[in-house]
Amino acid sequence: EFRRVLFRSGGYASFNFYAIDDVNSRMHILRQTDLLGYGRMNLDGVHEFFLRGYVRYDDFDRGDSFDGQGDEWRGPELDRAYYRFDLKRYLSAYEGVNTRNDFTVTGGRQLVHWANGLTMSQIIDGGEVSLSYGPVTLQAIAGITPDLYSDIDPFRPEFDSKYDRGFYG
pTM higher than 0.70, yes or no? Predict the structure, then answer.
C-alpha cells in the first residue's frame, strides 16, 4: 500500500536561430524548434519513475540544408526513461526501520555522472547500483550509449553512425 504519491510533469519549447558561413563565405540559415516534455512519479520516496522526450523541427532557408534533404522533423525521441528503487527508504516507509546503510538500483536510459562529471558524464542504456555501509559507498555501472547521440570520440571512424560504446565501472 502506497501512502504518498508525488507526480510532477512539465515541458518547454525553445527556438534557436543559426546563421553559419561556409568556407566560401556563403551564409546558411537554420531555425530549430524543440518541444520537450517530462513526467516523474515517486511512490513513498521508494520507487521513482521518470520519462522525458522531445521532438525537433529543423527549418532551413531554401538550398541551405547541410545534408540536402531540406526541412525535417526529428523525433519523437525518448531521451530519458528510468526506474529507481531505494532500500533505505523502503525500510523506513514500510517497516519503520531507520538505518545508515542503503542499497539503490537504477535501470533504464539515464545520465550517469561520476566524480563531478570529470570521470564520466554520459547518457547510457543500462543500470547503476549503489551500496552504502556506514560512511563507505560502492557504486557500479554497466551500459551502452543510445543511438540518439554521436560517439564521445569524434576521431573514431564512423563516430556519428556506430554508437555501441560500452561503459562499465
Answer: yes
